[in-house]
């Protein structure tokens, strides 16, 4: 059978290693595994969310309301936009897929930072598009403009705060790039970790309201991180109605589960969980900064719920990640991103204690 | 912004109307709405499944094991295939999408019966492929062969039992088509409702084991129907490893939720719920057959959990569906499939009582 040519060039995404794998491969009890690899919310599941799940456990046989009327109403209110400005995805990931499929083909190129969310490249390659990257992982205006003028990309991805590096781009700089780009290029502002950046420094807060006036910009958000719903797979895109309508043509029916729909509606009502997540994070990340300084390790100033440690030639990120894995501590090795570094989700106090203990031993 | 040309030609799928819509539009209390439109399992959620959901309500923040190791092991055992022969989708729907994206382009065509599952066409159109249909809704060998020889389609869809008509194709006839088709055409055997057909007449049972020997055939199954997990969005494709590997390139990470993964594993362990679903169904469908005969309405002999009534010129399917909707009874109008008929999910005894009462009034 002859498959489409684009398949020859596609690598599949390497997900953070699951706890189940460590249990299977190294015989470590699940309770002793500390997973700081996938930027899951260390507090756990919001009790209000767990309650919604439990009370609706007996409607798993029913398809969700595919109009997502109530979730769109909740998001409309939260972000001061209309329901027609919103598309829901199985994670903001799926909205990235819709965008890629609606706009890209073998003649297009896409522009992104040197190190950024891996799915931009994978979805673009699925459409045969060419990948252009700037030199820095930071979203520098001059680098983006130079590449933009040279390649006229169909899509520019601005991941802010950036994953897996943790740095962010200020609202001013995001708007400066948007203002300098022609209307035939779509700018994707991926704010998956925006709650953390906005809480740290309001100059880094970018909101759908800042962007809805532009007809070539889409804002992406997710319930997976600050809302602690990674396992439920719900994200969203917010843009002008005309764009949303086109993306809808690539949306499969019932693209989130019945329970996912209900918990996302509940999550929109409850800001206190997000606030508690951020408070824990802000307190605990200081320990990672201090530890790095005390041990002569560089790190990238973080605007997210994780921190990226960068190693010099004396430390190897693959060796360190593998050694930690055998001890039941899962972090994300960044070697596949071309960096000698690791991304560590900021955990609970206890999880971080375990990490520091093992990490100190491994690097000594 | 210039979107891909294929978008001009895409219609979005019209999902069965949700209960929420009837509540909103007609002010009917949710408990008084009878939904027989989406082939959801009328028994409801398996209590063993509801228990799994409740006990895991507090891990909604954790991503699922993306290797789906345990679910694949359970399916391997159930169907006597290897884990490498399996790909999991958010419903078998998503596997259809992977297939379409891996194989189709603007030069290809796909072949399907005159009336069959709507997503075959939508996913094929998303890739710009041409849609070829046979004359009958039944999967007739001669009609398929004639179109196959004429158009050399890249994919042939055999939906058995067929949705939304309810008829089925025997194993003998499925294998006859497969044997007559060249290896460069993929044959998709969509067995979403197979449990019902197999229980009714074993000559209509088609299993992955029947098909795994062919390198151009894929079997699709789902947990949405007989297993009663429509709202959880889990389906699967079973084929030779080489094909599965290509489809994997189009699979997004974490494409089912954490709870969906756990309930699907549980569902593989529990045959009794499927047996009870089929028993209820077989008992209740007789009432639909009897009612039709008594009222001079034609119907298609059903091998699924629904029945299709066909109307003559004295009855109009749109008027009937609309009148029932206002009474809180949701069924599926088949006008958009070019048929003057309706598809009715076989409900519980009480649901069917309500249906017959309103339907008798509406058609009189």
TrEMBL record, chains A, B:
<keyword id="KW-0663">Pyridoxal phosphate</keyword>
<comment type="similarity">
    <text>Belongs to the class-II pyridoxal-phosphate-dependent aminotransferase family. Histidinol-phosphate aminotransferase subfamily.</text>
</comment>
<protein>
    <recommendedName>
        <fullName>Histidinol-phosphate aminotransferase</fullName>
        <ecNumber>2.6.1.9</ecNumber>
    </recommendedName>
</protein>
<dbReference type="GO" id="GO:0030170">
    <property type="term" value="F:pyridoxal phosphate binding"/>
</dbReference>
<dbReference type="GO" id="GO:0004400">
    <property type="term" value="F:histidinol-phosphate transaminase activity"/>
</dbReference>
<dbReference type="GO" id="GO:0000105">
    <property type="term" value="P:L-histidine biosynthetic process"/>
</dbReference>
<comment type="subunit">
    <text>Homodimer.</text>
</comment>
<feature type="modified residue" description="N6-(pyridoxal phosphate)lysine">
    <location>
        <position position="225"/>
    </location>
</feature>
<dbReference type="InterPro" id="IPR015422">
    <property type="entry name" value="PyrdxlP-dep_Trfase_small"/>
</dbReference>
<dbReference type="Pfam" id="PF00155">
    <property type="entry name" value="Aminotran_1_2"/>
</dbReference>
<feature type="domain" description="Aminotransferase class I/classII large">
    <location>
        <begin position="31"/>
        <end position="357"/>
    </location>
</feature>
<keyword id="KW-0032">Aminotransferase</keyword>
<keyword id="KW-0368">Histidine biosynthesis</keyword>
<comment type="pathway">
    <text>Amino-acid biosynthesis; L-histidine biosynthesis; L-histidine from 5-phospho-alpha-D-ribose 1-diphosphate: step 7/9.</text>
</comment>
<dbReference type="InterPro" id="IPR050106">
    <property type="entry name" value="HistidinolP_aminotransfase"/>
</dbReference>
<dbReference type="InterPro" id="IPR004839">
    <property type="entry name" value="Aminotransferase_I/II_large"/>
</dbReference>
<keyword id="KW-0028">Amino-acid biosynthesis</keyword>
<dbReference type="InterPro" id="IPR015421">
    <property type="entry name" value="PyrdxlP-dep_Trfase_major"/>
</dbReference>
<keyword id="KW-0808">Transferase</keyword>
<dbReference type="InterPro" id="IPR015424">
    <property type="entry name" value="PyrdxlP-dep_Trfase"/>
</dbReference>
<dbReference type="InterPro" id="IPR005861">
    <property type="entry name" value="HisP_aminotrans"/>
</dbReference>
